[in-house]
């Protein structure tokens, strides 16, 4: 029970990696608020599974690219539990295309989903964490933000931005005993991967030292480590979880 009685908000917490994080945190004793914005069916499925397993996972519908819904989510979470110990910024969007063909909409949409959401959630939550003099923030980046990936200039730019954001915020919040770290997953089992061209997936697998796709649970376990007391002397870092591509 590494997170016993801790309170965690997980954005995009009802699908994929976010879902795995929400369930693992709850298994480890946390009270989890799993954020979602559109997919009600996925949210209800998570709530049902959590109930069957006796896990404390609540839902909060909010578009985290907008400040007011984020403020409402944070205030209601704080009102219910009296604290917020952990924030996982997992929300993300991918719209791949070569830059010469990329629309303004596809560029701006990723700025909103991958960076503005980070700004909104961190700015709101850290006000609570500073007063507590305690907190853990974990941001989801990507190996695309480290390596750069053809056809992903928008995604790579925003995920690289997540890493810079993480480093800067860690410096700001260190004096308040608030740790800020990031993880950079590689190819992980998801709806997005299932829709990718088979040849592209196989190429990435071949470039991996482990020769396979990662699982959401494998990312969740690293996020759990960063959220726990085991990472008490780690901040401003990005942990790569890619099976040995980088």
Structure in words:
It is a single chain. Helix content is 49%, strand content 15%. With 246 residues, it is of the alpha/beta class. A seven-stranded parallel β-sheet has the order 3-2-1-4-5-6-7, with helices on both faces. The longest helix has 29 residues, at 104-132. The two termini are 32 Å apart. The mean pLDDT is 95.
Quick structural overview:
With about 250 residues, the protein is α/β, with parallel strands linked by helices. The chain has helices at about 15-25, 40-50, 65-80, 105-130, 145, 155-175, 190-195, 200-205, 215-225; strands at about 5-10, 30-35, 55-60, 85-90, 135-140, 180-185, 240.
List keywords for this structure.
globular; 15% strand; single chain; alpha/beta; 246 residues
Q: What's the layout of helices and strands?
A:
Layout: E1 7-10, H1 16-27, E2 31-36, H2 40-52, E3 57-61, H3 67-81, E4 86-89, H4 104-132, E5 135-140, H5 144-147, H6 153-173, E6 178-185, H7 191-194, H8 198-207, H9 216-227, E7 238-241
Parallel strand pairs: 1-2, 1-4, 2-3, 4-5, 5-6, 6-7
Helix pairs in contact: 1-9, 3-4, 4-6
């Amino acid at each position: 029970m590494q997170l016993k009685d801790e309170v965690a908000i997980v954005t995009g917490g009802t699908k994929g990696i976010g879902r795995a994080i929400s369930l693992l945190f709850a298994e480890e004793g946390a009270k989890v608020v799993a954020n979602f914005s559109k997919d009600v069916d996925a949210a209800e499925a998570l709530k049902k599974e959590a109930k069957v397993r006796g896990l404390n996972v609540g839902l909060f519908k909010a578009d985290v690219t907008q400040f007011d819904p984020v403020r409402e989510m944070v205030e209601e979470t704080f009102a219910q539990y009296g604290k917020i110990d952990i924030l996982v910024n997992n929300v993300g969007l991918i719209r791949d295309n070569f830059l010469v063909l990329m629309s303004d909409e596809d560029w701006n949409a990723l700025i909103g989903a991958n960076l503005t959401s980070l700004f909104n959630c961190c700015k709101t939550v850290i006000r609570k964490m500073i007063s507590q003099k305690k907190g853990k923030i974990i941001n989801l980046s990507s190996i695309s933000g480290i390596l750069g990936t053809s056809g992903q200039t928008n995604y790579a730019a925003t995920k690289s931005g997540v890493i810079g954001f993480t480093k800067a915020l860690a410096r700001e919040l260190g004096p308040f005993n608030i740790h800020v770290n990031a993880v950079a997953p590689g190819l992980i089992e998801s709806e997005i991967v299932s829709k990718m061209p088979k040849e592209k997936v196989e190429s990435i697998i071949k470039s991996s030292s482990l020769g396979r796709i990662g699982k959401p649970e494998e990312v969740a376990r690293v996020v759990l480590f960063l959220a726990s007391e085991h990472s008490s002397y780690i901040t401003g870092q990005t942990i790569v979880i890619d099976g040995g591509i980088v």
